[in-house]
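TA notes. Do not distribute before section.
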Amino acid sequence: MMVHGPNGAGYPIRRWTVDTDLSAVTWILTIGPRMKDRTRVVSAGRLENPKSGSVNPPVHHTSTVLFPTVEAYLKARSKSFEVSIYGRLGTPTSAALETALCEIEGGFRTLVTSSGMAAITVALGAFLSSGDHLLMVDTVYDPVRSLCDRVLTRMGIRVSYYDPLVGAGIAELITRETRMVYVESPGSLTFEVQDVPAISHAAHQRGVLIAMDNTWSTPLNFNVFNHDIDISLQSLSKYVGGHSDLVMGAVTTTEPLHRDVRRMGALLGTCPGPDDCFLAQRGMRTLPARLRQHQDSGLTIASWLAGRPEVSRVLHPALSSDPGHAIWRRDFSGAGGLFGVVLKPVSDRAVHAMLDGYEHFGIGVSWGGFESLVIPTSPERYRTATAWTADGPTVRYYIGLEDVDDLIADLERGFNRLRAA
């Protein structure tokens, strides 16, 4: 949420506190100068509590909220989107995290959820009804495709998948029933970079909402609301948590949409536990430093892989050789540690031998933590609007915080196993 001073400069939310009259969380706006990203991440959502002197907001294990009088209870109920009268609707711990995330995102209000998929389900459920049309990018995270095909279509919502490189051509796919366009850039598994400003402009000219999964970049490397997006989605399990020990998500919206999102979140019961909220906020404090290290190590290793004779191409938009590099450089301020690799033709047995013997790359589907990961991928299985063709098998790497020399040595040994097999 932003307020504006006499000179038009924007100032973000700085603090939250507890309204003792309502025994519930309220939101406090503090006017102050705009901060740099690293300062904002450290200071956002901090509890001002001179009695305890605690740097971190305390963890509130709360279901029932008591009120001193009936009048106070009724007053709280009348402000159901500003205060919490029950743990499912928010706690001081979740409010602190939401305040911090909203300030970093630059949106109007954030809702934290029990997973990234829950955040996506809330966003789609809040604005799509029977008879509506959803334009979904063909490179979307596969569980979202399953949600569309198995749930939304059964509810009477028509879903069309579109080419991630369509750009302004999205206008030709919008019908009178189109309610939302969903983007994910770079795309899952194959990392195509979408022309988000062109898509957003075309959609808004027709009164269509834009939602974006921004987990790959985080708000520090791609500011969703500066690119005219209505709904920002993140899996907090990834970079924000940063330690592979929580599952959470977040939805941040512009002002006209936040009530519908909070209402849907409450109805679906997607509230995260207070301990996870605490872990997410703790992880968030070191996000800029970790993200920069992931980027630097990731680019070093991606460049090394691009020169290997076993590799056909590396799917990383921050590499100058990538087809999406020009758009990435125009719109993004950084990258992370997640990218794909297309190997030259080789048997599955050889790929498995390469992956199974890694010392520092665990085989696991998540990413964003401190540890390096790898999985084999099959992008061709998840496309309907576009075809995926590649010379050989594809692998997805996530580069953690280990020393780059150790990781490269591990990869070198893996290629030796691949050739031997």
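Switch to the second chain here.
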Amino acid sequence: MSVNSPSQETLNSYELSAQKFAENAVIVPEASAWLSSVVRDLKFDASILDIGSGAGNDAEALRKLGYTVQCSDAARSFLPILEAKGFAPIHFNILSDDLMTRFDVVIANAVLHHFDDDEFEYALRKIRTLLIPEGRFGFALKAGEGCEWSSHKLGINRYYRYRNKAVVDAALQKAGYCRCDVREVITKRQHPLWLFAVAHNV
């Protein structure tokens, strides 16, 4: 991630607007159902890393299901928000930082659509190295074609690179995942079409 890359500019936007983001953050029913599918059949002591935790909505939902979640975010301004909710978040950028720990599950909700194609493929490979051999990766992103900058909700620009199911399926296969379930889902969000995915490590 270069200093002037779209993803870095988007990260800068989150640094400036974390509180506003948190005030507007909601978890839609489709995302709740997807989260439940990601952890289906897992023991409650499973290790879970949430990449781009933001306001902690996904982590809270998983905590209600009985799981302990390691929250993380590349924007430091989200960390005190997560701490106030009882989490112990770490500052972690999947594009530039490394972790020694391996996890049963890695989750990234509404993160990967901020990455360009090279960053997207790199992140998929990097996340697989964070998984135990039988681990699983759940992620959700806006579906579509092309890219754009949008100031929707926050009033400050964020970059979006849209992808379709075929592109994501191919990228997961290239990155070495197996048993990949990528589903197109219509939501009631401002951008209705999303991809909800669960991919397994070999």
